[in-house]
Amino acid sequence: MRVSSVFARELEQVFQKYEAVIGMEIHCQLRTKAKLFAPSAVDSGAEPNENIDPVTLGLPGALPVLNRRCVELAARMGFCLGSQVNPLSVFARKNYFYPDLPKGYQITQYDKPICSGGELVLESGRVVRIDRIQIEEDAGKSVHGGGRSAIDFNRAGVGLIEIVTHPDLRTPAEVQGFVRELHRLAVYNRVSEGDMERGQFRADANVSLRPRGSAELGTRTELKNLNSFRFLERAVSLEIIRQADVLDSGEEVTLETRGYDSKRDLTYSQRSKETATDYRYFPDPDLPPLLLSEEELQKYQTDTPAPLARVWGKLKEEHQLNSQECDQLTTTHDMVEAYLLLVEGLKKATAKQAANYLLSQGQEKGFEVLQRVSAQEELRLWLVSALDCVAEGVVRMKVLAERAEEAFGSGKSFLDWLEEKGLTQQSDEAGLEQMVNDLLAEFPDQAASLAAGQSKLTSFFVGQAMKRSKGRINPQALTQLLLEKLKPS
Ligand code: ADP
Ligand code: MG
To answer: Ligand 2 center to residue 356 CA distance, Å?
Structure first.
């Protein structure tokens, strides 16, 4: 890429003298049907102000009621980042005036967030420590145009989590890597739909520089609402270069909030940064402390998939699964574990074949099979041998997929059961040869066309053979023999 290599040269220069220190604040929209404290729907496709109600509009006397689903998703994100999920957290009011904030305050969490600590390890080995995850509500949206401004409150009150990191990142590339990884986690854990264009996943980057070798933190600026991975890397690069210029000319960096203008490709000052005292945080008197029982915590933890980025990488690279298959097999931690255990036992069959089998009758069925397999060692071993049979060409996958229940229930080995039912695939040469000869004699016109190159006709012959053999023919073997016989000698 042309542009980033331009930055690479400039950044290299900056980095000879300074170290960049970057901490992130990520706002991630929770995947729920209703808002955080109100019954209105969460639906980005709705007409303006379709999803509003007295709580959303902050009408006097309207009381917030917590949507527990938001809590569950926030806890899940915490568990998958290795955070401490706190049995007690507190909602607080963050007071400020803005037209899209009708109550005059945002409900968020302050000194007692739902999650504390945790970390995300990047591919580079960089450990990014999570400071906290807090639950909060989104604001509405101001729309400007035609000499007027209007406000759409559909998004007001939608549940978010804000994930705050320690200032552990050092380069724009690491920032991008971190946000990508976090995004993937949120989406695959079904915490968020993560649609960045719709603002469901927004990153703020806090950037400062310090002389190489210094342990102190420099003054930072906060880059707001970077809503694409590419912009994120560009904006952070530009900001690092800008701050280096400021410092080099003997001036000081101002603590402020900056935006990124993608058209002009620069960062610009928006406002001086507020401090906590500006917001007059205090516990929201309308909401009791958020308590999570031991059972709830346990349940949320069990529902949290394992370090998914790693699992996903393994399934793609080692098992050759596509994204859809990965997605479908990684709904829960348990599911992944059961799948991996099953695959480990395979001798002839590939992981891909096991996945095909599991998903052949839909994700739910596959999930159910994996649940049973993990509870029943005997079933797992049986399934391993059955999949190996399929891989050896003894029987078609279809037979296993459709009759596994019955076959396992018989108490016999899969192979014995197949033989008893006469379901093994016919690959013995004498039988095949007889079949091919019969077919060629019976359908001379089709045979001539096939010989002349109309390859579509192979499926006609396979179909006929299937019918006669009651599905026991091995289609590859049949096709091969057929074409050999038709080859001009
Ligand atoms: P605030 O209360 O202004 O939001 P926080 O202490 O909560 O400040 O920090 C917000 C974010 O800024 C965190 O991600 C943190 O890692 C990051 N941060 C704090 N100080 C610095 C700094 N000097 N340089 C870079 N990032 C910083
Ligand atoms: Mg903050």
So the answer is: 46
Ligand nearest to the backbone CA of 22? 1
Q: Ligand 1: does its nearest atom lie under 6 Å from the Cβ of 220?
A: yes
Question: Going along 192-307, which residue ranges are E strands?
Answer: 201-211, 221-226, 256-261, 266-272, 282-283, 290-291
Distance 207 CA to ligand 1 centre (A): 8
- CA 69 / ligand 1 centre spacing (Å): 29
The domain locations on the chain are 8-295, 306-421, 429-485
Burial class (CB in 10 A: 0-12, 13-18, 19+), 341: middle
What kind of fold does domain 429-485 have according to CATH?
Arc Repressor Mutant, subunit A (1.10.10)
Q: What b/e sequence results for 273-287 when a residue is b if at least 16 CB atoms lie within 10 Å of its CB, and e otherwise? A: eeeeeebebebbeeb
**Residue carrying structure tokens 């960045």:** 196
- pLDDT in tens for each of the 489 residues of the chain? 344 556 899 999 999 999 999 999 999 999 999 999 999 999 988 999 999 999 999 999 999 999 999 999 999 999 989 999 999 999 999 999 999 999 999 999 999 999 999 999 887 889 999 999 999 999 999 999 999 999 999 999 999 999 999 999 999 999 999 999 899 889 878 899 899 999 999 999 999 999 999 999 999 999 997 889 989 999 999 999 999 999 999 999 999 999 999 889 899 999 887 776 789 999 999 999 999 999 999 999 887 765 666 788 889 999 999 988 988 888 666 678 889 999 999 999 999 999 999 998 888 889 889 989 988 999 999 999 999 988 888 888 888 988 999 999 999 999 889 888 878 876 566 778 888 888 999 999 999 998 888 888 889 998 988 888 777 778 888 888 888 888 876
